[in-house]
Predict the 3D structure of the following.
Amino acid sequence: MTRISVDVNDEWLDAARAELGTSSKVDTINAALREIAMRRKGREIAEIFASAPIDFSGSADAWRYGGGRNLDDLIGHAQQEAGQG
């Protein structure tokens, strides 16, 4: 860890503390820095996914309700097993 002495805007620090739910100045500054670093990492990951070729052909059938299985009788079967049908 690096130890530094820095002048910080108290209003911004208080706003960041309220947003981040931190209790000390050090915790607030570290949490804010971590948040910014994670945002950058998130953008990098999103860019990787955006650049990957993905073939969605046929996905409507595979991902519809039930994953392509016929679930029409599901409620009836569940009621029979529970002795309600």
